[in-house]
Amino acid sequence: MNILNSQIAKDALAYCAYLVFFSIVYITSLTTIYGFSDDYAYIASAHTQLPDLMSMMTQGGRPVYAVLSCIYIGVTNVSDLCWIRLFSLAGIAALSTLFMKHLKENSPFSSSVCIVFAACIGLMPAFQVYAAWSVTAGYTWAAFMAGLSYRLVQHNPKQQWQRFFFSFLLLGLAICTYQPSAMMYWVFAGTAWLASDKPLPALKVLLTTCAVMAGALILDFIATKALPSLVFHAIPPMNRTALVSDIGGKITWFLLKALRNALDLPYAKGSTLLSILVLIFIVSGFAVHYRASQYFKYQKVLICIFLVPLSYLPNLVVQENWAAYRTQSALTSLLLLYFTLALWSLLKTIKASQYMTSCMSVMLILCAWIAHSDVKNGFAKPQSTELRLTAQYLSKINNFDNAASIYFVLARREETLAPFLRYDEFGLPSSSQMWLPKSLIWVLLNARHSPNLAKVSTAGVGYATDIPNTGNVTVFNFGDILQQAHSQ
Fold it and tell me: How many CA atoms lie within 13 A of 367 on its CB side?
């Protein structure tokens, strides 16, 4: 019992340290008042049409996430979103604590290297998005549950059915929260199988590991097909859940988009040169390790290769080709593991393994600086400016009451207030998406208890060329708002 209490105390101390660390790195997500993109839609929908919001999440195979979305009922002001983002940071800290412990048990690395590496995972672009965007807060906990699921399988030599069942249950919950984050299961598996120079586990263990994942995926598939019709009745299928048909095109897309992005590791701006250099470094390190290792032979090489698509499996089996960073948490974490193993092998070859901690510390500082800058300049700063100017613009419009109709003119993506724009995440103006303007204005008016909420919900949205010619139309131009910001 004393040993158990001591271990719990150690884990609690590590968790608090990680939480403080990530809170400092991502401080702007906690101290800046802003919302981003779907944040506004979730707030408005939670107060006006929660069943529709939950049905959409359930259709996407995320019924647990649909339940979590109910938290937006308690969000009455944009400033409340910082608490949801703190919940996300708590999930990142939990994942890092668990992975640090897992790496200590399954690698030759020193404790300091394990601590630093686990922190680096929480600084990758996917986790930058999770820290900055409140609607992704549950994704960090999906990754944590997936890692915990694998550890239950790993520490189950006699295959007691209780551990097997709870492992399946945890992974099922993770997948039903957010499928890409749940693929962290394979990162934990890859660490156990590849990080130390030991033989692979018995075939039965490998098959059991795969069986848990297969069962969880089947559970999610059943939930996707059954729950929408049972709970929400007749609902048309979503395109994003349609299975892939062009396999060759999908493979090409994966290699040129998702995998290339993930090879950039913490650099969310994208760099082909960096991707190539990281790939060369990993292959070189593994080649050296292959020649020097007793157990790193072709079986482990094949596992290294197969784990790459497995870590991105949910996005490979559907038609939608959208390599957004939030989908790459497991893929990038796996490549970061490969990069670290390659670094270890190369340092051992030149008899400089004593510098491993120093190299990883430099990498941590670099990743922390990039993550802080990306969240500040890609999310917090531009989104807070857009929100502030929108509120000011709204206060100058006095004819909502007398307007026969309201028309919102969308901003253009190119009018971003951020230094770079990547996918629908880093730097994207919230007001550039068709479904956002009405929700954004609804949230601002609701905070003021305005009587015009119903009128805003029926407003038109489009581009300046499509403004109605009918009289008494109040035009709310988001493009003008962003242009004003650029001129300041």
Answer: 26
Q: Select the more confidently predicted residue: 318 or 343.
A: 343
Scored b (16 or more CB within 10 A) or e, 408-447 reads: bbbbeeebbbbeebbbbbbbbbbbbbeebbbbbbbbbbbe
Which residue from 318, 434, 251, 316 is spatially nearest to 59, judged by alpha carbons?
318
pTM exceeds 0.70: yes
Q: Tokens in use for 77?
A: 């002001």
Question: What is the C-alpha to C-alpha distance for residues 121 and 241, in angstroms, rounded to an integer?
Answer: 28
| pLDDT value of position 186 | 96
Q: Which residues contact 54 (CB under 8 A, 6 or more apart)?
A: 66, 67, 69, 70, 232
> Cβ contacts of residue 81 below 8 Å, gap of 6+?
34, 35, 39, 75, 134
Q: What is the pLDDT, as a whole number, of residue 9?
A: 65
Distance CA 407, CA 456 (A): 9
Q: Mean pLDDT of all residues in the chain?
A: 88
- pLDDT digits over 181-222, tens only? 999 999 999 999 998 888 888 888 888 889 999 998 888 888
pLDDT tens digit sequence for 306-340: 999 999 999 998 888 888 999 999 999 999 999 99
Q: Do the beta carbons of residue 483 and residue 416 sit within 8 Å? A: no
